[in-house]
Amino acid sequence: MGRRSRGRLQIWRLWLHFVGYAMVVALAGWSLAELAVPLGEKTALSHGVVGGIFTAVSTSIPELVVAITAVRMGALNLAVGDIIGGNAFDTLFVAASDFAYRDGSIYAAISSAEQFWLANAMLMTGVLLMGLIYRQRHGPGNIGLESVILLVLYFGGVAVLSLWH
C-alpha cells in the first residue's frame, strides 16, 4: 500500500471517528432535553432557567473541552474559532426552533428571562470583540481584563436569572 493510500485511509478513519462522536454528542443532547423538562417541573425552576443555565452548560462542555485541549496543544486559533464559531452557530438554533414551533413566531413566545439572557449574551459578545480588537498581554490574575468582565457578566447573569423566578 503506497503512502498516498495510507494517508487517505487515515483521513477516512478520522472522519468516521468524528461523525461517530458527533452522533454520540447529538444523542446526549436529545437525552438531556428529555430530562430537562421534568427537572424544571420537579424543582419548580422555569424552563428559561433550566435551559439558560443547566442545559446550556451541559451541552457546552464538549465545546469547552475542545477549546482547552486546543489551547494546550498550542492551536490557539482552533480554540478561539471553536468558541466564536460555536456562538455563531448556536444563534441559528433559534431559527431552527422557529421552524419547529407551529404556533407562530418563536420570537414572540420567549419570556423576559430569555430576553435578559439574550441581552447579557450580546453584552458578553461585545466584550469578547473588544478583547479581539485590543489585545491585552496581561491583566488581573494573569488573564485578560475581558475574561474577568466575561466571568462577572456570566455569573451575574446566572444570579439575576436564578433570582428572577
Please tell me about this protein's structure.
This protein is mostly helical and 165 residues long. It has a domain at 111-165. Helix content is 84%, strand content 0%. The chain is built from 6 helices and no strands. The protein is globular and about 45 Å long. The mean pLDDT is 83.
Q: What is the alpha-carbon Rg in Å?
A: 19 Å
Which descriptor suits the 3D outline? globular
The SSE order reads HHHHHH
CA(first)-CA(last) distance: 64 Å
Count every helix, treating DSSP H or I runs of 4 or more residues as helices.
Answer: 6
| Mean residue pLDDT | 83
Number of DSSP E strands: 0
Give a quick account of the main beta sheet: strands, pairing sense, barrel closure: none
Give start-end ranges of low-pLDDT stretches.
none
- What helical percentage do the residues reach? over 70%
The secondary structure category is: mainly alpha
Question: How much β-strand is present in the residues?
Answer: under 5%
Key phrases:
mainly alpha; single chain; 6 helices; 165 residues
Give the arrangement of secondary structure elements.
Blueprint: H1 3-43, H2 47-72, H3 76-100, H4 106-109, H5 112-133, H6 145-164
Subcellular location: Membrane
Domain Sodium/calcium exchanger membrane region: 15-160
Main location: membrane
In short:
The chain is mostly helical. It has helices at 3-43, 47-72, 76-100, 106-109, 112-133, 145-164. Helix 1 runs antiparallel to helix 2 (47-72) and helix 2 (47-72) runs antiparallel to helix 3 (76-100).
